[in-house]
Amino acid sequence: MEWNDLRVFLPSRARVRSARLRIRTFQSRLTLHRTRGCGDRFSWTCLGDQSMHPWISVPLKKMLGIHAQSGVKPLRDMRSIGWRRHSYHVPAQLLDRNSVCYCVGAGEDVSFDTELKLIYDCHVFIFDPTPYGIQHFTQLKEHVESGKTFVANPKHTPYTYRIGADQLAQITYVPVGVWSSKTTLRFFDPQINDYASYSACLFTDAKTVVEAPVDRLANLMAQFGHASIDLLKLEIEGAEYEVVDTIIEDRLDIKAILIEFDEVYHPKDKFHHFRIKRCCDRLRAAGYVLVHSTPNLKRAFVRRDVYERLKALEGSRPDATSLSSVTEQAQE
Fold first, then answer.
1. Given 24, 133, 144, 279, which residue has the most CB atoms within 10 angstroms?
2. Where does the record place the Methyltransferase FkbM domain (predicted)?
3. How many domains does the chain have?
C-alpha cells in the first residue's frame, strides 16, 4: 500500500489542529496553578462554564459529588409550592394545620409563604429585616385588607396572591434576620435589575448599605415558644452556610429544611460548588436526607426519621399529588 493510499484514512490538518486546540483548552481549565499563599489548587473554571460540553462537565461534577442530583434520595409524593422560581418542593404529607413553618427571607415574593398558609392553614412566620421585604409584605396586607388584588413579579412572571385577609392576618412577619448571633448586621444592596434582595455575605462592594437586627435561630424559636419547627425555608443570599452551622451546633428540632444556595447565581469565587457541597454534607452527617434538588441547587432536606415515615406512607393515598405544582395549577 502506497503513502497516498494511507492518506485517505488520516484526518485532515485542520481536524488535527482543531483537536489539539480542544485538548489544550480542556487541559488549561483543569491545570494545577499556584496561588499566593494557598499552595497548589485546581482551577475549576470548567465546572461553571456553560460552553463546556455536557459529556465533560456532567461526569466531572458527578465524580466530585457536586452535580445537582448527587446524593438525592427522592420521595415520590412531592408538591411544588410557590410561584415559578420562588417555589420549593415539599413532601405532600409533611404538613398539617398544626405545623410550624419558618420562612426566612422574603424579598418581593412571598408566594411560597402565603401558599403554605392557604394550602395547610398552618402557623407561618416570615423573617426579613430588609426594606424590600418589609415594604412588599406591608403593601400585600394593605391591598388584601382593602379587597384589592396584589401582584408579585409584575414585569416578567406575574403572580396574583390568592390569600384572603383573614388568613394573611394569621401570618406573623418578623423584621429580624437570622444569623449566628444576636447583633446588628450590614446588608448590601447590589442594585441589580429584577433582583430585590439585600445580602449580608454577597455584594460587599455595593454602595447601598443598610443595618438591620439579626438573631440566632435558637433564640427566635425560644422567643416564640417553639421547641420544634416542622419546616424551615432559608432564602438568605449567602448566609445559609452560617445558619446551617448554628442549626447543627444547637441540635435544633427541625423536620425539614429548604435551602436556596444563592452562590449558584452570584458566586463569590470559583469554589462555591464546594462550599455548597460542604453545607449539604454537614446536613447529611447531622441526620438529614436530600429528597429533592433543582438544576440550580434549590434543595429540600428531610430529617431521617421523618423521611422513613414518609417513605412508608408512599402509595397509601391514591390521590397523591406526585410532583404537582399546586400554585401554578391554581393560577392557570
1. 133
2. 122-289
3. 2
